[in-house]
């Protein structure tokens, strides 16, 4: 399942026509009248952007990006944008191949899941001083683009996974919105007693690095975490994490969650058919439900809240999104950074929200009524204040897959939490953090 499919919130409009590069990525060249080569990738000149920006974009977002180009070109009439859309599952491979071959684009946006591996190549330029104001962005989201305290990405869009549930079923059963783990268990038991086969749905199918990232939020809710603060050592089998996985696993053991699904995209049908009552998922789920059932059904049946807190009141929510990044060897870094600056204005981020449904990373944009008046998005915003991003190490996908597989053993009752996390810790230590 592609990541953009998970993120997309609503149908999107027709794209504005732009020049799209028809290049073979591993060996692409630049047009003779391309970038201006205005100094190194860390400098930005005064004045409008000029020359050609070669932009590589992945996933469903690439289909809609051209809707933003016209305004930028109107402000910078001597610039052109050549965009190469790339299937998301090929993006990391294409980028690392281009880096090795020295045929990189000027500008890319990098999904949070891709950043550790790509930023580890050291092929990306630090964000120039003064390009944007870090304080304008959500702190937790800004940090997703940092490596060793240096920012290599400027946040473009974001999300937080929140608890989305059938408020009508809960009200009919006489149970409130779950605020902590005890409430979550009560919510699940009450709805199960009322006839909902599996009241809760976690993102577990398949059990992989996404499952591991979700479990990491439970670990943080219990005062733990799967890697230490400076990303130098895996802490997968800490006592706090073992306790968190024991709770997580008990929800499967007691029949509140099925280890066989639903998948993320199947959640709409399961919620509609009363087969589940609550799910941890991103804000795009509301768009899917609206598309399938209509806005009235969404408003009458669904509600959202920050994921329930752990035993000591700790909150944590899985966050992600995408960051703009410029290559060190970019031919036209100057114009590329100016596009990033344009993309970071509240007006542009709101235009992207309207076009694609992806949520702004600039905080002031959330004051726009289209976002501010949506109670569910209020919960997403609050959840972002407790954001937990994936470990910023290049080996994350490998370690996350290992951890996801071990979590499956607990979910299916074939291993204890201690056994599973000890095994994951041992494999993670052999893999390392890649630094």
Chain-wise SSE layout:
Blueprint: H1 3-7, E1 51-58, H2 59-64, H3 69-75, E2 79-86, H4 88-101, E3 107-111, H5 115-119, H6 139-142, E4 146-147, E5 150-151, E6 154-160, E7 162-166, H7 167-173, H8 181-193, E8 200-201, H9 209-221, H10 239-253, H11 267-272, E9 278-281, H12 284-293, H13 295-301, E10 302-305, E11 317-326, H14 333-343, H15 346-356, H16 369-372, H17 375-384, E12 387-388, H18 396-411, H19 417-431
Parallel strand pairs: 1-2, 1-3, 8-9, 11-12
Antiparallel strand pairs: 3-11, 4-5, 6-11, 7-9, 7-10
Helix pairs in contact: 9-10, 9-18, 12-13, 18-19
Could you explain the architecture of this structure?
The protein has 435 residues and is α/β, with parallel strands linked by helices. It is built from 19 helices and twelve strands. Strands 1, 2, 3, 6, 11 and 12 form a six-stranded mixed sheet that branches. It has a four-stranded mixed sheet with strand order 8-9-7-10. A two-stranded antiparallel sheet has the order 4-5. Strand 4 and strand 5 form a beta hairpin. Helix 9 crosses helix 10, helix 9 crosses helix 18 and helix 18 packs antiparallel against helix 19. It is globular.
